[in-house]
Amino acid sequence: MSYSDPYATFQTPVHEPPPPSRAVARVLSGLLGLVLTPVALGLLAAGGYRQQTLIAVMSTRRDALGIALLAGGAILLLLVAALGAWSSSGPLLGGLVGGVLPGVVALAMPEWGFDLLDVLPHGGLSFGLTTWLFSGALLAAGFLLVGTGLATTVARRRPAR
C-alpha cells in the first residue's frame, strides 16, 4: 500500500528587499505643498486684483506686473499639483490648509474670514484675497488640489497592466 505525501514540497522562500521608504518624499512634498500653495494663491489674488482694477475703469491698458503675478501663481499651483507624482501629501495638505479650510471658514463664519484677512497688510493682496475668499474661488482651488492628491493616490495604488 502506498501513501501520498501529505506535505507539498518545501520551496526556499525568496527574500525580496523591502520597498524603499516613501517617508522623505511624503514629508518634502507636504512641506512644499504647504509653502507653495499660499504663495501661489497670493500671487493669483494680487495679480487678479490688479487686472480687476483695470477692468473696473474700462481700461484697455495691459498691466505687465498683474499678468506676471497671475502667470507666476498659476505656474506655482501647477508645481503643487505636480508634486502629486512624488507624493500626494503636497497637493492634499496644500489644498486643505491653503484653500478648503479658509474657504469653509469664511463662507460659514464671515466674521472669522475678515479676522483672517486682518492679519495681512492692506493693499492689493488683501483686497484680492477678499474676492477669492468670499466668492468661493479659494475653496474651489483648494478642492481642485485635494482632488489632484486623491487622484494621484488612486493612480499609484492601481495595479499595473
TrEMBL record:
Q: Which UniProt keywords apply?
A: Membrane, Transmembrane, Transmembrane helix
Which ranges does the record mark as transmembrane? 23-44, 65-86, 132-155
Stated name of the protein: Uncharacterized protein
Record lineage: Bacteria, Bacillati, Actinomycetota, Actinomycetes, Pseudonocardiales
